[in-house]
Known about the structure:
The complex is a heterodimer. By secondary structure, chain A is an alpha/beta fold. Helix content of chain A is 27%, strand content 29%. Chain A has 6 helices and 7 strands. In chain B, 0% of the residues lie in helices and 39% in strands. Chain B is globular and about 30 Å long.
Amino acid sequence: MLFDPAQVYQPEADTFLLLKAAQAEVRAGDRVLEIGTGSGTVAAGLPPAHEIIATDINPHAVACARQKGVSVVRTDLFCGIQGTFDLILFNPPYLPTEPEERIDDWLEYALDGGTSGRVVIERFLAGAGPLLAPEGRILLLISSLTGLDPVMRLISRYGFAAGIMLDEVVEDEMLYILRITRAV
Amino acid sequence: MKRSLMDILCCPVCKGDLALQVEKEDEKEVLEGKLHCAACNVDYPIHEGIPDLLPRTAQ
């Protein structure tokens, strides 16, 4: 499909931070699911020996990811996906966005985290449990703009435990990679 | 999409299994076709190798 690159979130510092974390985290034989793959940069940057499936809701993004050789499904988060995965990756829309700030295009899905910045993250955490293998890991990227403490509270509320795996200052925000597992 | 992907795809609405109907396929993967949910009586398209599992609101 011809896709419009202007409608696909292009790789930025957050993309490369998640890629770095995922490359360090992935193990031989892991079944990997990336939610909201966007351009497909993270999924395409993992060692090819791993089974990797990616999703995005944006038709331009799935076409872009497919061109990179990513096995991609168009769906909302993981709505059309079943089974369990050893490693789930998600760089969510994390920017607090007021209704009047919304721009009605496909990029909005990559950026808009609702008024709190945590609306999509909460939906993800509420539904991720059945897809995570018993010893599985989730790598979730968030920003200081999203709020580290409120996200940590959401993680606990949905039965997970998390630690900060990586962080990086980017201009006036701090990016974090949270490594999430089932709470024991 | 590769045929092996069928194991992890489900109906986004009822989470039931889907039946694959192939219209065009090459040696590697399904390029065009449909994924049918019998419970919802809905077809989800596969176009240019990409399954589209968004709810079909307009049908």
